[in-house]
Amino acid sequence: MLSFKSYAKVNIFLKITGKRDNYHEIKSRFLKIESLYDTLTFKPKNPKKEFELFGEFDCELRNNTIYKAYRFLKEYKNSKKIDDFLEHHAIYVEKNIPKGGGLGGGSSNAATLLLALNKILKLNLDKKELCFVGSKIGADVNFFLHECEAANVEGVGEIVTPIKDDAPKLKLIFTNEFCDTAKVYNSFRKNFWSKIDINLAHKLSDFGSKELLNSFNPIELNDLLRSVLVCYPNLKVFAKDKVFLSGSGSTFFEVLDGHNDSKK
Fold it and tell me: How many angstroms separate the Cα of 260 from the Cα of each of 169, 174, 189, 239, 257?
């Protein structure tokens, strides 16, 4: 069996900077969370033509990011090795990253499949080629394809600049709420578009994550916090001073006083 970790991320800040067709352009700081990950495992099976994926998913196979990654990879790299391998191996996913939690689980899974197949099958795709495929799947995929600890992310997620960061240890606060990303962004466009601050968005990219969390409040750092609370008012109990929202929710986080990386 071949197993690969598929890590979560948090957004230290997330600022909306404009529109591109039906998408929103952003500036954001992504941090990889080493302590939280799904696991993708390739297990041998009797040869079948069908793509086989097992895990706790609540969408049709054609909408699953792992399946999309396979389909777009095959479209880009017309290699018989891809189908040969997956005719003899099923993909099993152990899910630990909460769905709809703003932690990038689906995007991470897609990126992990691309990286895994590129390595196992020696497809020899470079980072630029992998990111070309990744950009077809979802906004956060390219961050995970860079396999970095921290990065500034721009555009609709396709521009990733890895950085050295002074990130503190974080405590994740899971709310057991599923936040629909499209719903949250639609609420922002409808209710809070006038509050866009381009200057602040550019300014935040120059700070380290520790300084950002010490110097700015949750509303300043995440433009989607107001929208999340409008769409999911029961999350207001978690919205406190120095408690920050990751992405479009529903996971919050705070800086740990000590040195132990733990989860709530």
Answer: 7, 17, 38, 23, 9
